[in-house]
């Protein structure tokens, strides 16, 4: 059990300038305060090389998992349960990234403002995740230089777009459950 009750902390698990090859989990219970002046990242990675975050329960913090600028390899995030510890607007990101490649598989993200958001990454592969509850987009594809595939995921109670692509590059968003048998509602599909 890893608990951070101070609102001025950087985070519960912070991996900075090592060589990668880190595995966080399985079976960690990580709880972080949801308000305060600190960064309050439950898991923060900013290191080159490949890293894995697997099989954890992450509650609270302003960001459940944050991948930052020194991360040049592939970060695999699999089999985690990431949830807000307070009102739905406390945890800003379930998973946020601005570097490297991402493989996000088999996670449950519950009641986060922005379940998944990335800017400045390369490739992103998301499969078999459940995103339930958001006051914003389910997945915000801010910017990427490779390919993004979001498949076999479930989007439930998302108040904005389930997938929002901020770029002109096509995002593969096939074979997802949109909370409706008729698919996502938009101008080409009124529901």
Please count the beta strands (DSSP E, at least 2 residues each): 20
User: Main β-sheet: number of strands, strand sense, barrel status?
Assistant: 7 strands, parallel
User: What distance separates the N and C termini?
Assistant: 44 Å
How much of the sequence lies in strands comes to 35-45%
Q: Assembly state here? A: single chain
Order of helices and strands: EEEEEEEEEEEEEEEEEEEE
Q: What is the global morphology? A: globular
Count of discrete alpha- or pi-helical segments spanning 4 or more residues: 0
Low-confidence stretches are none
Strand order, sheet with most strands: 1-4-7-10-13-16-19
Helix content: under 10%
Structural class: mainly beta
Average of the residue pLDDT scores: 86
Radius of gyration over all CA atoms, rounded: 16 Å
